[in-house]
Specification:
By secondary structure, the chain is of the alpha+beta class. The chain has twelve helices and 15 strands. The structure holds one RNA strand.
Amino acid sequence: MLEIKYLRQNLSAVQEAFNARGYQADLDAFQKWDGDRRAILQEIELLRHERNVASDRIAEMKKTGEDAEAIVIEMRTVSSKIKELDKKLSASQEMMDAFLLALPNIPHASVPVGKDETDNPVVRTVGEVPKFEFEPQPHWDIGSRLKILDLERAAKITGARFALYFGAGARLERALINFMLDTHTDENGYLEVLPPFMVNRESMTHTGQLPKFEEDLFKLSGWEYFMIPTAEVPVTNIHQGEILAEDRLPISYVAYTPCFRSEAGSHGKDTRGLIRQHQFNKVELVKFCHPESSYDELESLLNNAEIILQKLALPYRVIELCTGDLGFSAAKTYDIEIWMPAQGVYREISSCSNFEDFQARRANIRFKQKGKKGTALVHTLNGSGLAVGRTFAAILENFQQADGSVVIPELLQPYMTGIKKITP
RNA sequence: GGAGAGGUGGCUGAGUGGUUGAAAGCGGCGGUCUCGAAAACCGUUGGGGGUUCACGCCCUCCGCAGGUUCGAAUCCUGUCCUCUCCGCCA
């Protein structure tokens, strides 16, 4: 959410930022509502002041035994007038809140201007793309031949876009989760958390999934609870409504959770394999930090995610999202894309973003500044470290052998009880 | 699921209709004392919003949402959360 004062004072700059995003907002209407709202507020405050003064007078008169009846009667009409205006104000306030909650974040000045994903510049490419002396197979074929991945039976159990892992496959998924968690806790300094996998409507609103993207979420019937689409939601909400001590910042969390997404509007996209599932595992990095250091923290968070791929010897590249491709809540985002040999393309495996104070304002997460009065909003960041299912798929495809086996990356082998290769 | 207790400032905890933004203690900050520190003592110490160039003035907030009243932390209703006992249960 943008600060209403900022919006009021920088209308044209905001309009420009939204244009770069390709987002249309009726800022003229905003100006009018804002003026109306403040006019009502001032009227109410004046009446309330009048009533407060009169109430004190009444209390005094009752003490001295004077007759206060005349003022009481007068205040009766003032009170009903206040009540009437209060209704107008809360209607006006609701409209304003709805408007503000629907506005996307403003891109950081460093974000390249562009229309869509074709305008995203590549920041760097890391690792060697493997050369095969045979036709590289897609991971779903490899997995099914090795009997470690069974998408057909998963469809019987639940439906399309669910996965069922067996034996070394289930083990590999679990090994990846543990490997990622251990690296981020032991080497990168994150505190591990295991949050709820369902959250309420408020939490979803704080991080920006709601109110605009409800159709992307799985919602429980009969409960105002949603399945989390990413650990970002429960973990960022750990500190909702809190005032943090400045010397505690930055706070860095890592969480493994399954993620649930309806994938509304992506019918026919990535219908085969593990790339686009309704349920997938992810290890997520989340930071709360001082506004002054949030862009340094974004670089370090991105590095923390990249290290996983370097340790696994998987080839990848980092791209920067342009203004037109930026997510709703983000001010700046890097995507890490992994090389998928069978399709011959890079696929997103991590998305690392700085939300600045956009989520913090919605979730009311602040810190106390030493030597300054008042509080300030923290900056929140998060990034995948990494999407586990896609990492699984990438390992199968990048490390497949001519005989149909898959070599396990060396640093992962201790997590696989020494298994060096998965064979049929 | 049944019965009960409770949610007050950074924390502990008073307050049951009228200068209560809220006693007291702890913590924090500033000072006195000291070579310095500790102790002691003194002072100070919430958030959000409107208005103003500013000083300031005003409104609001005692889980949340309503209601009663001239006036609500205090009374009423609903709701969420926490705790205790019983039942059930991974």
